[in-house]
Amino acid sequence: MAMTHYMELLASNQPWNLLIFMAVPVICAETLAITELIILFTRNFHGTARKINKVTGIFAGIYFLGIFLYLFTTAVIPITAGGEWRGVADVIAVGFYLLGIIPLGGIALLELGLLGKKRTQEQELALHATFVGIFLVIAHVAMIFGMLDPHIFISDLSQGMPVDM
């Protein structure tokens, strides 16, 4: 069975690629989600959970920007130029993974005061929580499509239906 470029990236150079490209962003997202819930339920906008949330948000946005730039220049451009995509699932997996820069970048911009300047603390919390949710959805779509055989959506009608279902 073939692998998507996403899964191949995570499987290569063990355990480093898995840590760099999966563990760190997911741990950051989970930390953001947990601290977000604590802030939401306690309404404590100045406590330890908020400080952890802020530092994690800035770190995650900057860290993922580095990942985005690295993968876009070393993988997406060469794969596209060489016509080496392995099907729709491959493009969706890599594309959704890289889309994570939007919500994580948004969180970092929010924490750095470059986005949502005129929002109240509660409005900022709502936007922050929305970005966390968007990232979690995007990351899960990338993971699901990344685990598929990239040829699953490629059909060759001349070959008939596959018999090894």
From TrEMBL:
This is Permease. It comes from the Bacteria. The chain crosses the membrane at residues 20-43, 55-79, 91-113, 125-148. The lineage of its organism: Bacteria, Bacillati, Bacillota, Clostridia, Eubacteriales. The keyword Ligase does not apply. Keywords: Membrane, Transmembrane, Transmembrane helix. Pfam families: DUF6803.
